[in-house]
Amino acid sequence: MNVSELLDNLTQQGVQLWTDNGKLKVNSPKGLITAELRTELAKYKTEILAFLQKGNNIANDSLTETQDLSLQTIGRLIGGFCHKITGFNPPIIEPKVMAKKLKVTFRPLPNEYKQAAILKFREELENKLRTNGVQIVPWKEATKEVQYDITIPFTKWKKTITTNVVKAGVSAVVDVEKHPSLLGKAKTVVVELLYKLYSRFILQNRPLSASKIMQFISWAEENIQPLEDPTNTQVIVLTKLNQEFVNPNIPYQKKIPIGVNTLIKTFSEIVIGVSENQISILNMNLSDSVFPASSIDEFVSNSLIPKIYVPILPLSLSRFEIGEYEPKASIYANKLVRLGKELTSTGLLPSGFKIDDVIKRKSHRDIVDWMANGRTGVSYGFVAYAEPPQYIGAVEISESEWESLSPIEGFSRNELRQNEIGRRYIKTKIREQNVFKQVPDIWVVSSRSGANKTNLNLETDVLRLGLQDRLLLQLPKDINLAMSDIKPSYDIYVMVAIALAAALYAPDLIKNGTPMVHFHGYPSTQWFQPNNEYCTGVNNPSVPCGTYESGVFNFLGIQNLVNKYGNNIVLASLIEPDHGTNIIASDWEYLLTRIKTGVEQGQIDLGGKHFSSLKENIAVS
């Protein structure tokens, strides 16, 4: 077994390995690292370190010339991993590196499947993934047989079910849409009844993991493939391209139910629409991104691979130190509520949907509930307001003062150090000049997940997020977390990354606080005013919302704009391809006026209508 195979094997079992100042760091589930495995790691330590460092170097080679901080440092800062080493994985933002860490399998086709365009695309997709470095795993190797017993309530009947599940180490399974027969529909009725009875009388409404629910119902579900680890393995379904969904002339609000229903009926995380001359891609971001069939290389490398590498998952509350605050006393919480209401007329923040309203079957709702960490609804976009950064002591120091500071475990001493009271200082390069700045405490007030962004309740809908050497979450005072659907936004990493990057590179942008608006659409190039309004990120890999990597791209976006144009930024549009746009400004009234003007003039819209113009006019980025 070579080093690559050894690391792949460990990764599949949940073991994380990384380099830290030349040392090999290991994080493992309890009991997995045996004495024999420790001996093997020690034996190959030099080779493992070299292999991991090579991967880091490849990732760093993809960065722009203005990049001055390592991805590991940026990742630790925005992720709140400054003193918490366990569980940290350095971010990867280069699709070629992502691809080498992926394993994809293709589910065998149904008998007599005759969709010629999809069959042709399926074959080409497999070849393109393999060419990019993705490991294609044969179906038999990607699955394993499992057995489980079910007991039918009110009877003595017990049944042993045997099924195949996709192994946890597989990143994605590619399938095709199936249309159930009358017999198949009858089986789903039976299995749903059995699940309801089993859940109520055997489990007594105790939650069951998503993988167990999938196993329970899969024998009757043609569109469900049981997964050993649904949080790691995504289902990708190939289907006929929905011309209505990708039609740029149809309002985005009408596309939301189309996209949601497509994902629900195929029971997948990603749906790829295929026609003779177009390819579309859909996930819970609900973008209506369309590619010419001739651009399949760009589609696979810049759109599909990043989505497979980083699934959409909410950040668990266990990652935060929980506290409380008084919303009425926060001027920024009050500004946020007002900002949301003022944006009502733009139509950029549609209300989304309640999970119970769109997913009718209890088994399916329970699977989504488990994977969404108890969220009861989905909304599109967010509003947030970064407070002015908080410093203790000198905001900026000289190089000689920097040299006297102490190193910090987990960070390169060439990038981050701390003084005698624990305040951290970072070495940045702004327009070719080294600047030594204090890393401030960051606070952002944000709409909670699922809230109506244009009608926020000050006392229940506004959360306060903190970034110090850890992540903090302050809930409205007197809120009972156990009784309320109070969950932070999926886009936390993006919010804190924007605020931290602004504090370090564009302090004038955040000195009085920074309003942020995120919507699932784009501005046109004509919308930007010259000299102090800028756009970046158009060519970034399209990582989904809620991901660590999306935070890194937004951090780098501000850094790159400052190095290119200076820190006189009044407004910045940070593009997230296949997702939407984050627009920030130094003044909330200016931001609001500019957005409203853009919507009124047809220069800002939901959906992908303006994205092609941004790509064609790279000069703005």
Find the CATH topology of the largest domain.
L-fuculose-1-phosphate Aldolase
Biggest sheet layout: 9 strands, mixed
Structural domain count: 3
| Rg calculated over all Cα atoms | 25 Å
Extract low-pLDDT stretches.
56-66
Supply the CATH class of the largest domain. Alpha Beta
CATH homologous superfamily (4th level) name of the largest domain: Class II aldolase/adducin N-terminal domain
Just name the CATH architecture of the largest domain: 3-Layer(aba) Sandwich
Structural class: alpha+beta
Strand content: 15-25%
Total count of helical runs of at least 4 residues: 21
- Name the strands of the widest sheet in spatial order: 12-23-22-21-15-24-28-27-26
Question: In angstroms, what separates the terminal alpha carbons?
Answer: 46 Å
Return the average pLDDT rounded to an integer.
86
Helicity, as a percent range? 25-40%
How many DSSP E strands? 29
Task: Give structural notes.
- The chain is an alpha+beta fold and 621 residues long.
- It folds into 3 domains: 3-91, no CATH class; 103-309, no CATH class; 317-391 and 425-620, Class II aldolase/adducin N-terminal domain (L-fuculose-1-phosphate Aldolase).
- The chain contains 21 helices and 29 strands.
- A 9-stranded mixed β-sheet has the order 12-23-22-21-15-24-28-27-26, with helices on both faces. The protein has a 7-stranded mixed β-sheet with strand order 4-3-7-8-9-10-11, sandwiched between helices.
- Strand 17 (406-407) and strand 18 form a beta hairpin.
- Helix 4 packs across helix 19 (548-565), helix 9 (210-217) runs antiparallel to helix 15 (362-371) and helix 17 (492-505) packs parallel to helix 19.
- The protein is globular, with a radius of gyration of 25 Å.
- Residues 56-66 have low confidence and may be disordered.
